[in-house]
Amino acid sequence: MNNVTKMKIGKPVSEVFEAFVDPAKIGNFWFTSSSERWEQGKTITLTYDEYDARGDIRIMEIKENQKIVFQWGADGEGHEVTITLAESGISESIVEVTEEGFNENEQDWIRQFVDNKEGWVYMLTCLKGYLEYGVQLRASLIK
Fold first, then answer.
1. How, if at all, do strands 2-9 and 67-72 pair?
2. Buried (b) or exposed (e) across 63-98, using 16+ Cβ within 10 A?
3. Measured distance CA(73)–CA(12) in Å, rounded
4. d(Cα 67, Cα 1) in Å, to the nearest integer?
5. Number of C-beta neighbours around residue 45 at 10 A
6. Does residue 28 sit in helix, strand or coil?
7. pLDDT, mean of each 10-residue run, the chain (143 residues)
């Protein structure tokens, strides 16, 4: 079972791509920090200070300005996430996030699926606010 979320961002794909892979930028819309620049084969530690959370992702594939594929959990046991970037007119991008690995046989899979969708919509909204308007919306969601 896959979860797909898309949003249009009013910036070129090169700026959107850099927002994800540059540790100095990711804290403006998603996690508090990233241990280093995202590159294929690396394990990156992400922190979310506001929620006292920390986790690793393993970068499986990077195609500059096109695609980022990573797996939650450096041990290879987590879901796989693909972030695809596509040009949409002049200085606009479509960002598509697909997360794979939901198990329909798990008792609470629907809650997991809905929470996951909410998280991706929220992250993309924060990305849009940061890149288009220079505002920081991250860490505002209360659950």
1. unpaired
2. eebeebbbbbeeeeebbbbbbbbeeeeeeebbbbbb
3. 30
4. 20
5. 14
6. coil
7. 93 97 95 95 93 92 98 76 94 96 84 90 96 87 59
